[in-house]
Automatic annotation (TrEMBL):
It comes from the Bacteria. It comes from Paractinoplanes aksuensis. Keywords: Hydrolase. Signal peptide: none annotated. Residues 22-253 form the AB hydrolase-1 domain. This is Alpha/beta hydrolase. Pfam families: Abhydrolase_6 (PF12697). SUPFAM superfamilies: alpha/beta-Hydrolases (SSF53474). GO terms for molecular function: hydrolase activity.
Length: 260
């Protein structure tokens, strides 16, 4: 692992392989290890970092809006001297990627949007995120992790893939509660990105697990309709984390996209 001092925090990241850089942004409440099946199996240069508040990166409490996460991504690109990258993210990571495209589209040569959605939260969803944030700070991550494991990965995969289930559970349970809560509060205030997606001019791959409850296939289809020339891949036998549940299928789609 390497570290970088960016925007007043210390970011932990990995930079492996060679070739045109691909930056992958993890979701909530995970860390950069969620991308291990891609980094270890696909050919190329992959950069994965822990977001502020997660993993080995500095924990910042309170509220972390998506623009702040995007500024951290830009800061890491500056630190690494990267003018242009393929940028991808899953779930919250995908929404951070959308904010990155809003802030610095000229530095993005292609997009990966996995198991995410572009709409702003409803008032009810905002209230739920804030209540959950308060709960995480009060109770810690264990209860939240147990409740959400069989939604993050499909219930049938919890039984069939114990190693994957253990990895996902470990990431969630070990996430710093203050950082995860700050991200939830900031995410509740995010804008609607649907208009932005209609302006995307770079190649875009949209991937979703067939049985994703958090971001159903309909959300991916909506993004596919909004982004001109985008490619949509639905991964069978997976829920919210197809890159972990069905890494071969996910890697086949991403590898073909990158080669293209």
């Amino acid at each position: 692992m390497s570290t970088a001092e960016i925007n007043g925090i210390t970011i932990g990241y990995d930079d492996t392989g060679a070739g045109p850089p691909v930056v992958l942004v993890h979701g909530h409440p995970f860390d950069r290890s969620m991308w291990d099946p891609q980094v270890t199996s696909l050919t190329g240069r992959f950069i994965t970092a822990d977001l502020r508040g997660y993993g080995s990166t500095t924990v910042v409490g309170g509220r972390t809006p998506l623009p702040v996460f995007a500024e951290d991504v830009a800061g890491l690109l500056d630190h690494l001297g990267l003018d242009e990258v393929v940028l991808g993210g899953l779930s919250m990571g995908g929404q951070i990627v959308m904010e990155c495209y809003h802030q610095f589209p000229d530095r993005i040569r292609a997009l990966l949007l996995a198991d995410t959605f572009p709409r702003a939260d409803t008032p009810e969803a905002q209230a739920h995120r804030r209540t959950t944030a308060d709960r995480l700070e009060a109770e810690g991550m264990i209860g939240y992790a147990r409740e959400n494991l069989a939604k993050m990965i499909a219930p049938y995969n919890v039984e069939a893939m114990p190693a994957v289930a253990a990895h996902v559970m470990t990431m969630m349970a070990s996430a710093p509660a203050a950082g995860a809560a700050a991200a939830l509060r900031g995410r509740a205030e995010r804008p609607d990105y649907r208009d932005l997606l209609t302006t995307v001019t770079v190649p875009t791959l949209i991937v979703v697990g067939r049985d994703d409850e958090f971001t159903p296939v309909a959300d991916a289809e909506e993004m596919h309709a909004l982004i001109p020339g985008s490619t949509l891949v639905v991964v069978e036998g997976a829920a919210h984390l197809p890159n972990l549940e069905q890494p071969a299928a996910f890697n086949e789609a991403l590898g073909a996209f990158l080669r293209g």
